[in-house]
Structure prediction request, 1524 residues.
Amino acid sequence: MTGRYSWTAGLLLLAACVKVAAWANDGDAVFIREFTLIRRDHLPEEPLQDGGQKPVDPSSRTARSEEDRDTLWDAWGSWSECSRTCGGGASYSLRRCLSSKTCEGQNIKYRTCSNVDCPPDAGDFREQQCSAHADVRFQGQYHEWLPVSNDPDNPCALKCKAKVSGLVVELAPKVLDGTRCYTESLDMCISGVCQIVGCDHELGSTAKEDNCGVCNGDGSSCRLVRGHYKAQHASGKTEDTVVLVPYKSRHVRLVLKGPDHLYVESKTLQGLKDELVFDNTGQYHLENTSLDFQKLSDKEILRITGPLGADFTVKVQFASGADSVVQYIYYQPIIHRWRETDFFPCSLTCGGGYQLTSAECFDLRSGRVVVDQYCHYYPENIKPKPKLQECNMEPCLASDGYKQIMPYDLYQPLPRWESSPWTACSTSCGGGIQSRSVSCVEEDMQGVITPTEEWKCLYSPKTAIIQPCNTYDCPTWLAQEWSPCTVTCGQGLRYRVVLCIDHRGLHAGGCNPTTKPHIKEECLVTVPCYKSIDTLPVEAKPVWHKQAIELEEEIVVTEEPTFIPGPWQPCSRTCGAGTQLRSVKCQVMLSFSQTVADLPSDECEGLKPATRQPCYRNPCSGVLGKGREEEEVEEEEEETPRREELHDWEYEGFTECSESCGGGVQEAVVICLNKQTREAADQNLCVSSGRPPQLLQDCKTQPCPPRWDTGAWSSCSATCGVGLMTRTVACTHRPSRDSNRTEVLREEDCQKPTPSPVQACNRFDCPPMWDTRDWGQCSHSCGGGFQRRQVLCKQRLADGSIMELPDTFCPSKSPANRQPCSKQECPPHWVTTDWSQCSLTCGNGIQRLQSVCRKQGADGILWNVDPGNCSMIARPTRIRQCSVTPCENSVKPNPTILAKRKVYIQWRKGKKLHLVVGGYAYLLPWTTVVLRCPTRHFRKGHIRWLKEGKPLVGLPHLSMTSQGCMKIQQIRASDAGIYTCVAGQAQEHFVLQVIGSKHKLSVPESRLLAGGRQKVGQPDVTTTTGERVQQLPISLNQYDNIVEHMLLLKGSLQDQKDMADKPTQPSEKSHSSLEEERANSERSNLLMLIADTQRLDELMDNLSGVLEGPRRDRLIAQFLSELTTTQGETNESTLHPTESAESSTQGPLLYKPNILAHTSRPRSPLIIQRSRKVGVVPSSEITVNVGVPVLLQKPVASLELRCESVGNPEPSQRWTKNGKELHYNSRVGLLPTGSLRIRSPSKLDEGLYTCTARNRLGSTSRSSWLQTTGVKGRICVQANDMGANGPICNERNNTSQSAGLCHGQACPLRWRVDPWSLCSASCGGGSQTRTVRCLKGLEGRSTEVESQHCLGTGRRPSNTRLCNLLPCARWATTHWGSCHGQCVGPSLATQHRHVYCQDTNATKVPYRMCSGLQRPSSVKNCSTQVCALHWRVGPWTQCTATCGRHGFQSRQVTCLHSRTGKATREHHCMWRPRPPSWQRCNVVSCGRVGECRDSTRYCVKVRQLDLCPLPQFKNRCCHSCRKT
Prediction:
């Protein structure tokens, strides 16, 4: 604070019991962090030494409030820098007195600051202050000081302990501001005084955490769990589980009484387990949790303040002796809470609709949404009601643009509950029921009411459909007490009042008169009538005159739940008879917090003490009489006739009203009164025969206010493991006193609190029981099999959790886990039998595997049936070679190698690959390769391997197997080259290349030294050793260029995919077809690409004239696409190759390591689209995958439409023809694979065939058009089993061939077709047309003739076809939500909207219906000033030391709003890294020996304060103090 008036803040330094006063005139308070200071106002006022007083400049002072002007104080100054940067510090503000006199009050005030946790490496603040004295000699020696905490006498003094000698010294009388007074408390030292700090980090606050750990909480976020456990040594077990205490629980206390021992097991949320065994009394640590264990002679006590860092399972280890008992108590957090959802989409797109919210149960531990039952388990959880709001309020546009908006059709009314009238009550009293129907209705703009779904009305509570009625008890007769006998001796009469009392306690009609008790009877007084009057019987006092005076024993709260009665309240009447009330609570003492907790009444055992009793203080009399002693003396002196005249009966007021409202009765109180003293006397002193009759009067006749009427509790929902009991709670009102009818009112009409309609019950552990899961799949689909299920022993605990136990815990026999299934008969099927005889008697022949059609009987035995029963199933065919004996004079066959002309390109990294010689391999480094050399007529163990024509030298990563395979472990660039397999005279080569970085091929060092790539195929050369190296007839670099281009193309495609997947771009789908998307996804999952060398040679020929450019890339990309679409055509596997595999020329292969591993998750069906032909089939049998058109230009024996589908669960397949169900017969039928087989297809079979695959997750379909040209009548196929006529077949075949070979000018008559027109519809099914003409003559000079002239040349092409068959659908979106998402940048947040697929009727449809359209984005960045935040860092403080290793400096880091400059929570700025707020400084040697220098920045102040004579300051300020 600056100005013309300079003022001072005095500092008093206390060190070594020396008090020194000094002044500073720098205009601010002086704080020396290493030393402790006292404020200026603690010192006496003295004049300044450096000048007089200057005039006041009003502009230099902060504006003052009226109160400050009255008290002559200046305004408070700005807050100082925080004494700490983390861990909680203190900041101060100063003000000065403007008067020459003394001002009342303080000139300094404090507040807490930097209430954030320090970094783990920062250390304890008190420890840092002790460490700062490590380089100061104490008693001539240096010490390493450790802090001494929790000093009860002076917690704010800096006491430290020498680490070696154990010497305890007070190094400073005050610690720095912000130091904690005690280690386990938030209280902090400020100016040497311990100040109270609440859990809200406010000075002087008394806020405390509740039992759940919530500051100023009400305890609703956790629940108290109590229980006990008794060991069972007789069970034979060595240990047992006491209780499972869940994560984040607090205030755990267990007491074990007995010889056993406690130990704890932990399990974190990540599944990590640990164990802690207690040896002796002390403090233990487990999963960042402190455990206090106390071991006594007869018991063990375990206390855990918490919160628990993991799930703790407390177990007991049995020892010999009696059974132990464990009592436990803890507070368990409620981890399942209701969370409100966002609003659902609007009910209307315009004209005023509505939208609702819902509530979902949220697991706070896992951060996931769970089923509602978890939240219903806690009665404390109240599910929020749905909210409703209006939406899309803009008017709908009329079609003609001139529609008049009428008032009634502006907005659509909200849905509402509609109920019918209540039915009549089933009984007139004693409890009945009445019901009504309630439905949700919707009213349109014309006022028409229609029923609708119930969820639309859930924004308001559903009205009750059933309610109790006439629940009050039926009227009953109530007999009062008998009056005294009418005589005092002998026989007389006595009377009583009999009333008909209803449920309100009022005298009313309705009782059965035949059951009314009698009101008069005879009585006999057992006193002879001739005896003296002194022996008359003493009449009993009325009931209301009795008053129980009990001396109750004081009951104190213990650790066991006990009923604690409160004091009796004063009597309701100051005289006469009245009542007294008191409160009785069930309470328990929590030892760890020394607080008393209230429990439900059912937690306390024993009978609950009375809460009401009668009382009688003194008679209601207005005259003060004589004392009791004088009265007794006078009575003794008076005679009997005088006593009768002295006492007489008299009425004294009335008793308390029998009802508090609605009309009650009062009884007149009759007493025996002394006429002289006007005091009540003993009733024996009055003549009983003169007792006046009983008098009653009405009272409290005003109607009763509404009151709560509760029904009886229902039975418990569970017999154990905590259940629920419910009851009806209604607000009722009786209109009049004489009425027996009650009305049910709204809950708001009755006073709070509302009685609870639900309460927990049976809160104890269930016995272990068997828990059975669902049966699994049957082992066989027919003919009898078995299915299994899982059977577990589980126990439901008192807290609602379920624990899995060993099977021995369940007492009864385990339920069956295996049962028979699928007992229906199996259909006939082919069964393979023996091999046929060899086709040749000598030499190499073939054998065929024979098969028969069999059917399994009821006894499980297979029986042969007619082969026609298996005609719909493909008959297995298998052939193998055989040789009975060598033919005479036969030459032993030469060895051959079954090579494969393949090119292997590794697409992504894998562990091991199996390859076959005869081709090329381009592999990634560090891949293990097994190179096979399959042979015939040669022993595999004699196979030799060469590299570059030389025998292989033994290398550690290269080995040979017993099967003749060569294995290379983790190949590298030096392994590239030509490998040769030698089997006798046969040789086959294999070229291995290694892919390097940037998709380039690595070159071995041997080739680099030779001057580049090796050109193989040169003449034989001789090595320096004279060894002849043979020429290798294979090119080393034949496919290098094209493979490198393919790898580069793959890299660019991957880069484009990565760019498309960036989160900053909206997730959009391209317009490519589903086939292209599937091909791209499969290509990205490929492990290896396998192609024929012949196909690559053709590609290289096509590329020979194309050097560079888009056409070259397009050809290679097309080749990659072909490789993808032909994946899976053969079953060749590079992981598990078969020894009998032969060379194939079928097409490229794709290697996918484990397809089944990716199908375990549920997925909707997908029909695999493959190329037109699959495998090698006879020309008379055609196999086509569904999805491509089929055009038969010549007769065939059969056509198979293959439909391969995948999905989880396994999808079912259905075939349709032209949109209708396909009917099967002997010619058209299904194969076991789901494919469709059509035998001898003809004109009748033409149409659109559709295969639909469906499971519970969805469905998909593909279609194929079948057309036939030149197929007429019966089809003739030249096959032995068809029985066709030879000449006819030849004639037809020649005809079809001539028609098929006629092209262009060679055809005098021909069909000419124009291009197809545009589709008539973009979706939902349209049609296309084209013009078909018959032309005659040569090309260029042809003329159009009638269509019948061209019928001989072939079938007329179709002029119409269907198109765009997919249903019409489009993406729709809701309005953008508000811009209140997470901050993602400066002034940037996110906002969301719903995106869904809908058809033309605005009905939601599955997303796949819109998969071909560009999907709008559902999230985007938005601009908001709420996120205009940035980190602001303050200047670094001066280092606390000029040398050594203990110096540190700090700065303030704050998250501020850019416009307002206000600080906010730090997590709002976390999208940018937080700058550090603490660092070490001046970490250099202090040079203790022979060097005099200052090691602290406060040496100037030390010299000004004349502190240099003190040794500890002289040592640290050596340079400044040497001149003094």
